[in-house]
Amino acid sequence: MMIGIAESLIDSQGFDGRDMTYTFVRNYESEPFRGYGPGPPRIFRAIRAGAAWDTAAQQLYPGGSFGNGSAMRVAPIGVFYYDDMKMLTEVAHKSSEITHAHKLGKDGAALQAYAIALAANLDPQATLDRSEFLARLRDYADEAVYEKKLDGMKGLLAQPD
């Protein structure tokens, strides 16, 4: 599905939810053996049967799925919108809604896309300041559960290698 995001962003020159959804559907139909979890194929079948692309996921999972599928596929959004954090957040949320419409699913995807954008903006010649990188992720996080996890990572970074 990461490939589908990249294909759709390039073909549409930005986010087009309908195009991205049908790119996911076509890619799934041409290669269903690629290790999809149980939810997306059900959503794709519902869309093919006439469900609206922007509400099919919520029909399958009332309240929306908050799994990690949308975070796993979001890297192209971090690259495409590396210089526009407002659009990055918006597109990460909207692309997540196609299959993972719960706020935690959307925010997890946005956080991962932000990490990719931060990495894309780093000076490759400079040493990575892990604490600063983590602090920026923590500042960006919109959900307490992610803030808590990032705080736990801060403690791990304080330990000797």
Automatic annotation (TrEMBL):
Which Pfam families did the record assign?
ADP_ribosyl_GH (PF03747)
Q: Mind telling me which Gene3D superfamilies this protein's record contains?
A: ADP-ribosylation/Crystallin J1
What InterPro entries does the database record attribute to this sequence?
A: ADP-ribosylglycohydrolase (IPR050792), Ribosyl_crysJ1 (IPR005502), Ribosyl_crysJ1_sf (IPR036705)
Single GO molecular-function term? hydrolase activity
Q: Does the keyword ATP-binding apply?
A: no
| GO CC term (a single one) | mitochondrion
Q: Keywords in alphabetical order, please.
A: Hydrolase
UniProt cross-references to PANTHER family, sorted A to Z: ADP-RIBOSYLGLYCOHYDROLASE (PTHR16222), ADP-RIBOSYLHYDROLASE ARH3 (PTHR16222:SF24)
Q: Which family does it belong to?
A: Belongs to the ADP-ribosylglycohydrolase family.
- The protein in question is named Uncharacterized protein
